[in-house]
Amino acid sequence: MPINETVYLHRNHRVCIGKNGTQKIWNKYSFWTHASDVWFNDGTTLENKISGLKGTTTNIDSGAGYAADVTLVKSIRDSLKSLIDNLSTLVNSINNRLGGLSFYEDSNGKWVVGADSVPKKLGSNGFKNKDVLIHRMYYNFTRNISTTVDGGSYAYGNLSVFDLTIFPDYQNFIFGENILVDIESIGSSQEKVGYACKILYNKKIQRNIDSPIDKHNVVYGSFWGTKAPYAPNFDVNDEEDYVILQQRDKTVETVFLGDVYNYPMALYYPATGQLYCVIPNTSNVSSILLFKI
C-alpha cells in the first residue's frame, strides 16, 4: 500500500551534548549536503570544481577559466552553420562546373578524365582556363558587303555566317564572356585609314545580339561608322576599350578602340545559333576557332 508521507527540505536539528557552566553546548545536524562533502571520481570536491571557475562570459576572446554563456554558444553554432552552408554551396558549384570530370595522377603528372573517359592533360592546350571548343569551323554562308560610304569613298567588307547549333549548349553561349572566337581570313588585305588588327577579345566587338541579322541586305555601313546599327559603342573612359597594338614599323602603342577603323566583329544570335563574323577588308572569312572559357 502507498506510503503517506510529507517531504521536508532544508531541515536541521540540534542535540545538546553538555554544559559549560550555565551555557549549554549544542551540535547542529543539517540534512543539507555541503559542497565540500560531494566528491568526484578524480578526488576533488564540488567546492574545488566551482572555485576553479571565474564566471560565465559571452566574449569568445576570454581566457581560460570562464564558462561560455548560452548566447556565446548559440553565436558559435550559427557561425559554423553559415560557414558549412557556404562551403556546401561552393562545393556544389565546383561539382556542377566539372560536369562529371574526375581526377587522377599518373607517373607523368596530373590528368583530367572526362565523363566520356577520354584523358586530357591539364593545361595541355596552352590556354590555361580556356578550352578549345573547335579547332576549325567553316562558314555556311558568305557574301561581300563592300559599298560606298562617307559621301563616295569605297569600303571593303565581308560577312560570313556560322551555324553553332551543332553544339548542345549553343543557346547558353555568351560571346566575350563564356566563349571567344578567333577569325581566320584569306585573300589580300585592304588596310584602311587607322590601325590594322586581326581580332580583339573585347565584349563590345564579340557580343550577343537580340535579333538576327538580315544577311542579304546588310552592307559595310551596317557595322562600321558613326551611324552603323551594329557598331560597338566604345567609351574613352573604359580601360577595357583600349588595346595594345604593334604597327608595321614594329612600334607598340596603346590605342583607343574607337580610333581603330578596321577591326573584325563577331555577333551572335543565341536563339538560332547563328554567328555573324564580319571583317573590313577584301579578304574572306575562311574559318573560325572557338574557345570556351
Note the main attributes of this structure.
293 residues; 5-stranded mixed beta sheet; 3-stranded antiparallel beta sheet
What does this structure look like?
By secondary structure, the protein is mostly beta strands. It contains two helices and 19 strands. The chain has a five-stranded mixed sheet with strand order 9-12-18-17-14, with no helix packed on it. It has a three-stranded antiparallel sheet with strand order 5-6-7, with no helix packed on it. Strands 8-19-13 form a three-stranded antiparallel sheet, with no helix packed on it. A hairpin with a 3-residue loop joins strand 10 and strand 11. The termini are far apart.
Largest beta sheet, briefly? 5 strands, mixed
Number of helices: 2
Derived from helix and strand composition plus strand pairing, the structural class reads: mainly beta
The radius of gyration computed from the alpha-carbon positions, rounded to a whole number of angstroms, is: 41 Å
Q: Indicate the percent of residues in helices.
A: 10-25%
**Which series of helices and strands comes N to C?**
EEHEEHEEEEEEEEEEEEEEE
Strand content: 25-35%
Distance between the termini: 85 Å
Which regions are unreliable across 5 or more consecutive residues at pLDDT < 50?
A: 114-129, 188-197
Concise account of the structure shown:
With 293 residues, the protein is mostly beta strands.
Helix-strand layout with pairing:
Layout: E1 12-20, E2 23-30, H1 46-51, E3 55-57, E4 66-68, H2 70-98, E5 102-106, E6 109-113, E7 119-121, E8 131-138, E9 141-144, E10 147-149, E11 153-155, E12 158-163, E13 179-186, E14 206-208, E15 242-246, E16 252-256, E17 265-269, E18 274-279, E19 284-292
Parallel strand pairs: 3-4, 14-17
Antiparallel strand pairs: 1-2, 5-6, 6-7, 8-19, 9-12, 10-11, 12-18, 13-19, 15-16, 17-18
